[in-house]
Write a structure and sequence with these properties.
The complex is a heterodimer of chains A (about 180) and B (about 270). Chain A has about 180 residues and is mainly α. Chain A has nine helices and no strands. Chain A has two domains: about 80 residues, Rna Polymerase Sigma Factor, Chain: A (Orthogonal Bundle); about 90 residues, Arc Repressor Mutant, subunit A (Orthogonal Bundle). In chain B, strands 1, 2, 3, 4, 5, 6, 7 and 8 form an eight-stranded mixed β-sheet that branches. Classes of the chains: A mainly alpha (about 180), B alpha+beta (about 270).
Chain lengths: ~180, ~270
């Protein structure tokens, strides 16, 4: 690769390192895996860069995050049999009945831990839309691009994920 | 409108994704319907709680260095061993200033005056290395690329280690001239800093651990001697971190030269 091309690549994707790490970290719930995934994703991004015809920083961010997400899912299949591989069933996982986890009761010392714990217990398909929307501020269109689903699906996942978190938040407040 | 449809709309409304026309319809409905108003209120509260309690994270510095080193390495795969191009050199110079220079010479007695003069040369070499195009002759984060590169250029084969796992990724190496002889200079990165390690074979001087020699012009210099090599380390990195780094190098060296050891990386 020409040095100028590498510079262009770095200028476009390195500023999104924090976003990439945030997504990987919440998807894997594990710092070590998240770091490996981000590094792997940047290598893949470099490889595919010649095919990327995006312009401004926003497009570059969604493009990179899509690669991070795919890397995390591949990684999950390979390294963590349980983490990201649960077959996602839109309907089954859409039950908004809060699951009761005895261990989670211990975390209910504060609302902070409850919300954190509730996010961690969401299926990855729900967790990622929350991270992309609430933490990274992506638009529905961008979230659809990153996760590879239509905007309608983005909306319903986001809505269902929020319902679950809301219940956790209420449960946390009652427990205080 | 069913309850479910309304919820979907409500989320889109809170996220600013609703068409203006639909948004004003929904706003009118919110004024009229207490249940929906409460639902809306709860959504706004939840978003605020998430933003407050579930933070967006900052990538660890070690990851930052690792990603940069990996990219440079991968991008340069087809041209490993070439003299670094001006563009890449400029980037490197911007990126960091952690270069380890191991300078060793049997000709140099480690008298105080001799050490002072040597420190001056090492520092000058470090500063020169930071100028565009001077940092590295071989760009690679792979110790097995950097070490053989010195073959035929020096009368010794310098030990080369990568400490990317400890947050000090190897960036490359170059030939330098210190104390009246050609020496090996190895370059490492630490966040935005560069470290130069100079080394050369040592036949005199007392063997010991890394010790600070001087701080000049904002750069710290550390020096130590192993049974085989004299080492100098220079960087604008803080003294504590630089000392940690020097110890990593020293430990790697002693592990590698211990007869029974299987050369584990530190």
């Amino acid at each position: 690769m020409e040095p100028s091309e590498l510079e262009r690549f770095e200028a476009m994707v390195l500023p999104h390192l924090d976003a990439a790490y945030t997504l990987a970290r919440y998807l894997t719930r594990n710092d070590h895996d998240a770091q490996d995934i981000v590094q792997d994703a940047y290598l893949r991004a470099l490889k595919y860069f010649s095919g990327f015809r995006g312009g401004d920083g926003g497009e570059g961010r969604a493009w990179l995050l899509a690669i991070v997400r795919n890397t995390a899912h591949t990684w999950g299949r390979r390294h963590r049999a349980d983490a990201l591989t649960t077959e996602f069933d839109e309907e089954q996982h859409s039950d908004v009945v809060a699951e009761y986890h005895p261990a989670a009761a211990l975390e209910r010392d504060s609302a902070r831990e409850t919300l954190h714990g509730a996010l961690d217990r969401l299926p990855p398909e729900f967790r990622e839309v929350i991270v992309l929307r609430e933490l990274e501020g992506l638009s529905y269109k961008e979230i659809g691009d990153v996760t590879g689903v239509p905007i309608g699906t983005v909306m319903s996942r986001l809505s269902r994920a929020r319902l679950r978190l809301q219940e956790a938040l209420c449960a946390g407040k009652k427990g205080e | 409108m069913t309850h479910r449809e309304l919820e979907l709309q409500l989320d889109a409304y809170v996220d600013g994704e609703l068409e203006p026309e639909d948004a004003s319809d929904l706003e009118a409905h919110l004024k009229a319907c207490d249940d929906c108003a409460r639902l809306h209120e709860a959504r706004v509260t939840l978003s605020a709680a998430i933003r407050e309690q579930v933070p967006a994270l900052r990538a660890p510095d070690a990851l930052r260095s690792r990603v940069r080193a990996t990219l440079r390495n991968a991008a340069g795969t087809r041209s490993v061993g070439r003299v670094v191009s001006p563009g890449a050199a400029r980037w490197l110079a911007l990126a960091a200033s952690l270069a380890v220079v191991a300078v060793g010479s049997w000709r140099l007695g480690l008298s105080r005056a001799g050490e002072d003069a040597l420190a001056g040369q090492v520092l000058a070499s470090h500063v020169r290395s930071l100028m565009p195009g001077h940092l590295t002759d071989v760009v690679s984060s792979d110790q097995h690329t950097v070490k053989p590169w010195f073959n035929g250029k020096l009368d010794f084969s310098p030990p080369v280690y990568d400490f990317a796992g400890r947050g000090f990724p190897l960036t490359g190496g170059r030939l330098d001239y210190v104390g009246g002889r050609p020496v090996a200079a190895l370059v490492y990165g630490r966040r935005q800093h560069l470290i130069n390690v100079f080394l050369w074979p040592a036949t005199r001087g007392s063997v010991g651990g890394p010790r600070p020699v001087a701080t000049r012009q904002g750069y710290h210099l550390l020096q130590w001697t192993t049974p085989e090599y004299a080492y100098w380390v220079v960087s604008d990195l803080g003294m504590a971190e630089l000392h940690d780094f020097a110890q990593l190098v020293q430990q790697a060296d002693s592990a590698a030269t211990r007869p029974a050891a299987a050369r584990p990386l530190p």
